[in-house]
């Protein structure tokens, strides 16, 4: 975990979001076992979070990926995974679904390669700015995700919002300040980001514990699903 988080300093705009997501993946340890497929693995950084909990950590990414850095084990796409049916015990796919033109097709392919009884974990944004343009197609509500995963054949275990208003607002404010404060104003953006990343996580947790409506502003939904045994 420390190695994974070391790439994000407290003045990084994504600091709060990355930490919250990483800890949730770590807390979902029971979902990961055996042979795991990381769809859209990039540099396979998530192996520093859960790599010791599986027997084989297999990373898949497309041939043109700029983030693979030689760590890709299987060259393919979310639509075409060159592996036999039921060949993985678990699946991980983080912040990929919003970049796919045909999400249901991708989920059905993930379902195909997952063994019966195996679990898949997805993270999918709800409130987040445009990124990796022009390949940024969708944002998903909890209800949209439940519909898509059921259509693909999965059983829903959990669709959980990972933040309330304050983490979402603070993260986006960090990115916005970084985009407008340049030149001599740049140090002010770093100071502001430091203060937000220090205070807002606590504010967010308190708000979520007291205000059930706060999760309506989540930046990300954390999805756990299972392939039925029969």
Descriptors:
single chain, 230 residues, alpha/beta, Rossmann fold, seven-stranded mixed β-sheet, 7 helices, 7 strands, 36% helix, 20% strand
Walk me through what this model shows:
- This protein is an alpha/beta fold.
- It has one domain: Vaccinia Virus protein VP39 (Rossmann fold), CATH 3.40.50.
- Helices cover 36% and strands 20% of the residues.
- It is built from 7 helices and 7 strands; from the N terminus they run ααβαβββαβαβααβ.
- The protein has a 7-stranded mixed β-sheet with strand order 3-2-1-4-5-7-6, sandwiched between helices.
- Helix 6 packs antiparallel against helix 7.
- The longest helix has 25 residues.
- It is globular, with a radius of gyration of 18 Å.
Proportion of residues in helical segments? 25-40%
Share of residues in strands: 15-25%
SSE string, helix = H, strand = E? Answer: HHEHEEEHEHEHHE
* CATH topology group: Rossmann fold
CATH architecture: 3-Layer(aba) Sandwich
CATH homologous superfamily label: Vaccinia Virus protein VP39
Number of domains: 1
Distance between the termini: 35 Å
> Could you tell me the number of beta strands?
7
